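Appendix B: complex inputs.
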Amino acid sequence: KQEVTQIPAALSVPEGENLVLNCSFTDSAIYNLQWFRQDPGKGLTSLLLIQSSQREQTSGRLNASLDKSSGRSTLYIAASQPGDSATYLCAGAGGYGNKLVFGAGTILRVKS
Amino acid sequence: GAVVSQHPSWVICKSGTSVKIECRSLDFQATTMFWYRQFPKQSLMLMATSNEGSKATYEQGVEKDKFLINHASLTLSTLTVTSAHPEDSSFYICSARVRSLYNEQFFGPGTRLTVL
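Resulting structure:
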């Protein structure tokens, strides 16, 4: 059974800082891994999706990596901005993209 | 592209009533949709997988008679919370899977249910 853990649970950084969010998963037979952003009271916005055959994906200031052998993924945010403040969730998908298992999330606050 | 909508965005109802939540894929066809539940300050938990034209598959511990799911078309799935009670109050989010190389899921904006 897949379990996903995110560290840290909360993070507060000054504007402009580069930061890394961590995600670990127990089942290396992962189909893909997605990073999402959730603003308070809102749904999820997909940030990046990494297929099991890929090592990393980049979108603007975001870079996500995947290491199946160690069961880890990281989300790197460059030059953080106050608008980046949100909860970041990672989720691992089982076979054919079914059954996303979510981590508890990292609450990020970027101070201006 | 890949937009998913939910209706209503929030609903308040009395205990004992039933509430229907709609999930629509606006610009693509989704043979599979998923329903999640999120309690305050907690992560999402998968409730059930909805396949067009067939019965939904429920996760362990989710009462299928309590949470009725209907996937009547390739763009619409509905979740009906029957005889709602205060403990059913939660944030319900649906997602739709895009049939592609990546089988990515796109999420709706969620529905906040409050049962008085």
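Chain B has a mean pLDDT of 91.
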